[in-house]
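Annotated sample (chain length 258).
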Amino acid sequence: MISLVPLRSEWRREALRTNLWLVPTIEVVVAVGLYLGTHALDRAAFDGSIALPSWMEFGTADAARQILTTLAAAVITVVGIVFSITIVTLTLASTQFGPRMLRNFIRDRGTQFTLGTFVATFVYATLVLISIGPASSGKDFVPHLSITIAVGLVTLSMAVLIFFIHHIAVSIQLPQVIASIAKDLSRAIDAESSNAGASLEAGPSVAELLRRMTDSGGTVAAPSSGYLQFVQHETLIALAAEKGALGPIVQGLTGHLY
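Output written by the structure step:
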């Protein structure tokens, strides 16, 4: 009897992998921690305890608010438009290649990291924007270091955006789709083999299968170029009967398909 504990563990790992909230949540937590650190340094610089470089000066509090408002609005607008267009594109592609494409899009680490980077940048810029205001001394508190980090995060987000567009453009191509499906199938077969243990009967090796195909198989020429979408069983049997290979084909179908 197979234990349910490994199965539940695999299910939890797969559930954590196939979502769009885990990695962005981790990045948002990191962004909040970064804000707390830079805010403490800005407070120290405001009190005169430390000195920041002159190139970090962003002018008055109103100018800093305008910069952060523009950055936060641009980031959230870009991520909304890009992901909306991407999902529409993948939905159209999934009608040809199957619904697995959307699942692979969700569980892809590049997709999760890209979404998390944009969301974390937006949260960080919003927190810095909220922190701008009058201090007890009567002078407006302007977190120059935090604003500099926000500009750097937006620059990083643009670089991640370029990577994301390239990654999606490559991943929806037919060779990549087939390779991804084959990889998932191989992983599932390996998982089932490890669960079944010694009770699973080992099949012929790849070299043995190639030898059998060479010895008793035949070549079926395609009428045009492209990729194989389906095989008609009746046509396959008719070709096998014509070539005198009906016995091996029937044996292979009955012995290896289940």
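Annotation: The chain has ten helices and two strands.
Annotation: Residues 204-256 form one domain.
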